[in-house]
Specification:
It holds the Pfam family BPD_transp_1. The protein contains eleven helices and no strands. It is elongated.
């Protein structure tokens, strides 16, 4: 806790706001189902699109379900799917980048051209084709989001790794007879961590928006469960009434992505300074 507080104090004000928003939604994803007043699919209100009240803090949705409960459950899918896919994309892309940087030659060419092919496919089109072919499931959504953003991470990681591979200490390690895997993991990777963490945050934001877009099209998390994008889609008819059922999940997506961006920007500035 002391380390966390000292880290928070070292950030500028926008970074602290971003850290607060990210931690808030992470805690909501972790503890939300325990704090939710009702079951995720329970019909608890005879009226639909009820306003905020003491009984229903965020009103009810288009079927009379508690919006707060569904929001707390939906945050879990959005945060953990986004974070899991971002980690998978970053680990895969960075691993391929290290292989390409250490071996170079034809290995670098094959991996780089493969990544160029993947990055040329629009993410939404790729996702639509995969869901149409295999149906929507949590594991498929995780895989789609990860594969979509591997090439972007690979490009950044490869550029950093190639610069580091030309450094004197890496040349010295090669002269000592170090194996490629020891050079990659012991000499190059530790010096890539900070920019890769910043890139991980950006991938997370992109993936959250991608998954929310798929859910808005009805191709994401399926009923009775829902992520934040699904909550916006299923309550779209309440937009003319300004119903909390559609405003709350839209604000949740906005605060999560803006908070992550503010935190990433603050970390980049801190590193530059």
């Amino acid at each position: 806790m002391t380390l966390f507080l000292s880290f928070a104090r070292s950030l500028p004000l926008p970074g602290r706001i971003g850290l607060f928003l990210v931690c808030f939604w992470l805690l909501a994803a972790l503890a939300g189902p325990l704090l939710a007043p009702y079951a995720v699919g329970a019909f608890v209100d005879y009226d639909v699109f009820s306003p905020m009240s003491g009984k229903f803090w965020l009103g009810s949705d288009y079927l009379g379900r508690d919006v707060l409960s569904r929001l707390l459950w939906g945050a879990r899918y959005t945060v953990f799917l986004g974070l899991g896919a971002a980690l998978l994309a970053s680990v895969t892309g960075t691993s391929l980048a290290l292989v390409a940087a250490v071996h170079k030659g034809w290995v670098d060419e094959v991996v780089s051209r493969t990544m160029d092919t993947l990055i040329s496919i629009p993410s939404k089109v790729f996702a639509l084709v995969m869901v149409a072919a295999f149906g929507s499931s949590l594991w498929l959504l995780l895989l789609i989001a990860a594969v979509t953003y591997v090439p972007g991470n690979f490009r950044i990681a490869r550029a950093i790794a190639l610069d580091l591979a030309a450094m004197d200490y890496v040349t010295f390690a090669r002269a000592q007879g170090e194996t490629p895997i020891r050079i990659a993991l012991g000499e190059i990777l530790p010096n890539m961590l900070h920019p890769l963490l910043a890139d991980l945050g950006l991938r997370f934001v992109f993936i959250v928006l991608l998954l929310s877009g798929l859910s808005f099209l009805g191709l994401g998390v399926q009923p009775p469960h829902a992520d934040l994008g699904s909550l916006v889609r299923e309550n779209i008819s309440g937009i003319t009434e300004g119903a909390p059922a559609i405003i709350a999940p839209a604000l949740a997506i906005a605060t999560l992505t803006v908070g992550a961006n503010l935190l990433i920007h603050a970390l980049k500035k801190g590193k530059t300074a």
